[in-house]
Input
Amino acid sequence: MGNRSSSPEPQHGSSPPPAPLLTTPWREITWGNKEELLQYIKNFEPQNEEVEAIRVLLHGPVGAGKSSFINSANNVLQGRMTQEALANNTTNDNSFTKEYKTHTFKKEKGKENVYPFVFNDVMGLEEGNGVRADDIKLALKGHVMDGYKFNPVSPLSDVDPGYNSSPSISDRVHVLVCIYDANAPEMKQPVLKKMREIREAASDLGIPQMAILTHIDEACGETERNLRNVYKSTYLKKKMRDFSSSLGIPMNCILPVKNYSDETQMNPDVDDLILSALRLMVDFGDDYADKL
Output
């Protein structure tokens, strides 16, 4: 094995430190596998015929990259740069996403048919503000209507216009995905408490959960130099283990990705990581939906 010595914690926005690399990757991934993964996604259909689309709910701290991940997934599916979800590149503590919005993905350019899975983005989790855990709990059960504007002061109630009193199987969330920035400083306890509360609610409903670790290039110099070093990076492995311990999500349900940010052209290594995450999401969600 390679050197396992620890690296200094990077400051958010600074150049990533060089991280010691393992001689062999601690997790196997087949690079250059984009076409096979993409074909799997294109052929995917929910097992439960009553389910129109597998619903993936993304949540996490402000600035973790939820909207950017939606755009990155759409880039890969469309084979070009897109802007499906508006994303904010400024550094502040306020959530850019304000509404509960369902994002669909077109299968072919110029045609109306869409992939049988959707993403829902929510307002970021903040200390004292942001989306309320109660609202996400309602979303898990399908009670939040598309377009509902989150109110950090007051949770959604059954008398509000944005409340769906009779959710269908397709309205319910089938997989909960936490998006977390690998380059972020230590998570504040109030935010972590919210995330644990949401995770417990999902567990009570039997909803599968996973996590996406974003900004892996900014967090680790060796990964920035070569994305294929992601599973050789001792720093990123430690970051994932720490996150797994703090939130309780198993390591094999945490996937590192690099969102499209600086690029103007597609990158096959970026695509491989995003498609690997996307496949796990639809598989987990499909298994849950099949039981409903």
The first helix runs from residue 34 to 43. Residues 175 and 285 are 5 Å apart (CA to CA). The chain has one domain: 34-291.
